[in-house]
Here is the input.
Amino acid sequence: MKSATVFSSFPKVGIRPTIDGRYGGVRESLEGRTMDMAKSAAALISKELRNPDGSPVECVIADTCIGGVAEASAAADKFRRENVGLTLTVTPCWCYGSETMDMDPLHPKAVWGFNGTERPGAVYLAAVLAGHTQKGIPAFGIYGQDVQAATDTSIPEDVSEKILNFVRCGLAVANMKGKAYLSMGGTSMGIAGSMVDYAMWEKYFGMRVEDIDMTEFVGRMNKGQFDQAEYETALAWVKEHCKEGDDYNSEATKRSREQLDAEWETNVKMALIARDLMVGNPKLAEMGLHEQARGHHAIAAGFQGQRQWTDHFPNGDFLEAILNSSFDWNGARAPYIVATENDALNGAGMLMGWLLTNTAQIFADLRTYWSLDAIKTASGVELDHELISDGILHLINSGPAALDGTGQCTDAEGEPAMKSHWDITAEEMKKCLEATTWHPSITEYFPGGGMSTRYKTRGGMPATMIRLNLVDGLGPALQIAEGYTVELPEDVHNSLDQRTNPTWPTTWFSPILTGEGAFTSAYDVMNNWGANHCVMTAGHVGHLYITLASMLRIPVYMHNVEDHRVFRPASWRAFGTADLEGADFRACQTYGPLYGRR
Here is the structure.
């Protein structure tokens, strides 16, 4: 079957051209210019941004310019019919603020006021943003740095960047709303992140939590409740492309070839079943399984695994690794977000990263800080690397990291990258698979068996490490660290990697240091991290995470993003301009979760 999805349609961007409502020469002279501004913004968005399936983002422009409340209401009605999930108001002139503003409290919204001298677009921008602040409906303000002539219909680069970043984040909010997080099992090994918090998902993300017991996997496997033809295709693909590596188990704990083959078969069935549980599968309806065919409308999920499952059955490493990747036996497709150990907080971070970038996400333990001195002691090598300051962080976990994390895809300059599934070539998929080995899991860890992924991420890739934490009395709070992946000399890598579990994938990460606070050193980044897990997103996209967090009213309490890249609603300035981190906390506390107080 072709990859199923939770999306029957994608939210659209509503464009609101507002205008000075005075007839008799004023409005008439501005109609064309104002509508052209809306069309230019829509063209920019549809050209540059894609939905999760690769289709262009669609924009809906109000039927008329909006000069007062009647036209504002007519636009809102149209947007409801057209599945608009966020709005961008544009104007080159003065308009009546409270009469033309978007009053929907749940839609992310921004206002672009044209920087020109002939008409006071900037005056309207300031007035309507003040109205948004006064009414408690946050909005982003977009204002170009340079003055433009009234006849200049181009969109300056700084304005374009803010529009696109706002829309990326607003669409992430809209795409999450109404979907589900599927908790496959319960709490894993006492990990707090896998104690799924229903209220957080409902109030901050507009999603529900669905629960299934892991016995659902046993039942479906025993009853053959999966696409049998696809299973045969997937198993053949696995045998051809998923090469086994060394068995690191002792002679006493090694499992037989017959047992390993059976584990592979179970792993493939588990991957099919997990996907079907998330998004459904019409093939199941053909088998008479109508309820199962619908799935749980889950845009993200988590698999508990340890230990109630893994003590008796093969682990979830294969299902997590392959579902999180941008391809499988059906070819390239959007990743399915699945958090290992049912760490729903990391699942939320992976979901945000995917919706912001349309790329696969890396789930990992933040396992070890290695200082340069410790590296020398362990390897005998005095490391000198242009991307490393005082040390590096070892990101590693028991197999669920997406295969895209090998870094075998390349960007236009030939540098390692993680790309949207529609840009990944067949050759790049092949390289990702060739760079990955699958090892019999360590039996002491996983008595039920299973196969674990091993690879090493290519170095030099810009990356962003994040973690969403849940704080009693505060709610969710986000940490962000931009940096680079690092490729160590092979002898150094082996000296360090062999000291932990050699059957797991490794990413060496060097955070960008600022010399201040939590980013004084790589050690300080590690020491200030709020949990055992993290998400790694390709690219320096910390600014997008900050913007998205502000839309959801989630404060950010640790980041190394330069101030000029931080883009939050205009009302955040009212909570303080000197201490931006404190202002973020105060604003988020005042407004409360996006879906929690309405």
